[in-house]
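ok so dumb question maybe but i'm new to this and my supervisor (M.) told me to 'just get the structure for Amidohydrolase' and walked off. so i did the thing. is this what she meant?? sequence i used:
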Amino acid sequence: MDRYTVISADCHAGADLLDYRQYLDPDYRDEFDGWAKTYVNPFGDLTEPDAERSWNSERRNADLDSEGVAGEVIYPNTVPPFFPSGSLAAPPPESAREVELRWAGLRAHNRWLADFCSLSPARRAGVGQIMLEDLDQAIAEVAQIARSGLRGGVLLPGVAPGAAIPQLYAEHWAPLWAACDDAGVVVNHHGGSAGPTPTDGWGSSFAVWVYETHWYAHRALWHLIFSGVLDQHPELTVVFTEQGAGWIPATLDSLDVAAGRYARPGSAIARFAGPTAGSLSLRPSQYWTRQCYVGASFMRPVECAERDLIGVDKIMWGSDYPHYEGTAPYTREALRHTFSGVPAAEVAAMLGGNAAVVYGFDVAALAPLTDRIGPTVAEVAEPLTEVPADASSTVFEPDPIRTW
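this is what came out, is it supposed to look like this??
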């Protein structure tokens, strides 16, 4: 092995706003025309010249080539039709009509994404979107995502506290888990969609949101464990992406302790926990080992140091292209920063081997590309001695415990 096959488990793409029109069901196109005329994009990076990285296939492949990235798992980026903001960050819909329109927008995005992935089928695994505000439609769209060849699977939205729909641990969602299991799709839970939306500006509220947003995303892990979802669907694969990786070992320890208390006969806490949490066939950490993975976006050295506790075979590195906090345009430097000194076989698994298994990438089909662009084993093994002065990625942030 001279070069690594790098597959980013966290990239983002979406159509230019008006290009979604052709993917909408015809009944919604006139309304889309009126909506689009008055829409003001809330994201600065989607109004700049480089915004085309989200939808320009040739530009995107050229960028990934320069970064040494052969394959990518694609989450949404641009704003789908009828959404007030990006679908990952949008506040809940407030009416049945708004639910209907957003569903139309997400279906348009999924159709666009299937076409976009077909332009580089060996290289791209798209993640289709659903909403939870209509369970029947969500189930139908899961099946459609599988049929359309979006082998990245399904993006499971978060449920913020106080939302008008049940939390993910509710039995209400049992048909959804069954549908995902039956369709054989990967269930992906991306950071940023499960917590309350900041409402009072960009001061302290946003600082609190940034601090808490990953924790809200982590909740899906114990919701799916303690509700028995992973126990009842042992073939279901769940991926936790762009929400850090260092939280996993301590969380699994804590969940194992809690599950042990819930299962102890006669204990007071077991009475409160209920029969499902107290009758799991495995420890929570064993469900993690059997069914779960982490999309370790811009993975930092301090997280890599915990790889044995997380599971080397559970980690899938991600670049977060084309976002500011992602590793581009210094992905090669980021890989050296995080993975120098790590055994090559482990690096190969975390940089692409694990993602290839989870998302069905054909490594043999990617081999000619890897031979041309892949970072060499020797290159990644060389420690990074100086961080590029204009690097914006959080991968290069120093360990705060050591620098505070």
